[in-house]
Specification:
Length: 225
C-alpha cells in the first residue's frame, strides 16, 4: 500500500468485492482492460453502484444488454466514457467549425486493434484558416490510403501514434509520414503504460536520418502551429 501513503489516499482496496461492500462508495469507475469490463460492471451494478466505464464498454452487445437490464432493474446509471456530444467544449468547437472560425474539417478512416459495436475508428484532416493543414490520425495502424491523403492534402503536421501493439509503432509511423508527405510529425500515444513504452527521442533521431522533421510535445506543453 505504498501508493496510498505517497498519494495520501484514505481508502484503498486489494479486492473488488471488498471495495463494492463499502457503503460510502456510490459510483465505480472502470478503466481496466476491455475483457474485464463486463464482469466488473455487472458486479458493481448488482452491488448497487452506478458505473462509469471506459471504452469499449463491453466486448459484445450481449454483455452490454445484460448490464443495462440489471442497471434498469436497480435504478442505476451506466455511463460510457467515450461520448463527448454533451460536453460544453464539444459544442463550442462544433459551432466554431460551422461558423467557419477554424477552417475545413474532414473526417477520415482509421484502423484500431479494438472496436466496439456501432463504433468506427476515425481521424481528422483540418485545414486551418491560417493556411496550415494538420492530419490527426487517431489511434490507428498503418494503412495504404494515407498515400491518398498525401496526394489530396498539403499536410504540414501529422499527429501520429508511435506506441505499437495497439497502434502504429515507430517504424510504421515513419512509413506513414512518407505516405502523407508530412512536413513535420508530432508523435503521440506512447509510454502511458509499459506495453506501449517508447522513446520519442529515438524516433526523432531516426526520422531525421530519413529527412523527416519531428516535434516532441511533452505533457503540459503546447505547440503553436
Amino acid at each position: 500500500m505504498l501508493l496510498t501513503l505517497y498519494y495520501k489516499i484514505e481508502h484503498a482496496y486489494n479486492d473488488l468485492d471488498e471495495m463494492l461492500s463499502d457503503k460510502n462508495i456510490h459510483i465505480v469507475y472502470i478503466a481496466t482492460p476491455h475483457n474485464m469490463h463486463y464482469e466488473m460492471m455487472l458486479k458493481s451494478l448488482k452491488a448497487g453502484k452506478h458505473v462509469f466505464c471506459e471504452k469499449a464498454i463491453t466486448v459484445n452487445s450481449r454483455q452490454l444488454e445484460e448490464c443495462v437490464k440489471v442497471a434498469k432493474k436497480n435504478n442505476l446509471v451506466i455511463c460510457d466514457g467515450v461520448t463527448l456530444l454533451h460536453m460544453p467544449l464539444y459544442k463550442k468547437i462544433k459551432k466554431m467549425i460551422e461558423d467557419g472560425e477554424i477552417g475545413k474539417v474532414k473526417m477520415v478512416q482509421a484502423f484500431h486493434s479494438c472496436g466496439a459495436p456501432g463504433g468506427t475508428p476515425c481521424g481528422f484532416i483540418i485545414q486551418f484558416n491560417n493556411g496550415k493543414t494538420v492530419y490527426y490520425s487517431g489511434d490507428t495502424a498503418l494503412f495504404g490510403d494515407m498515400k491518398l491523403f498525401g496526394e489530396l492534402f498539403d499536410i504540414d503536421y501529422a499527429v501520429l501514434p508511435i506506441g505499437d501493439n495497439y497502434t502504429m509503432g515507430p517504424d510504421d509511423a515513419l512509413i506513414a509520414a512518407k505516405f502523407l508527405k508530412a512536413k513535420c510529425v508530432i508523435p503521440v500515444h506512447y509510454s502511458t503504460w509499459p506495453v506501449i513504452e517508447q522513446n520519442p527521442a529515438d524516433f526523432k533521431e531516426e526520422a531525421q536520418k530519413q529527412g523527416i522533421a519531428v516535434k516532441i510535445v511533452k505533457a503540459g506543453e503546447s505547440l503553436e502551429l
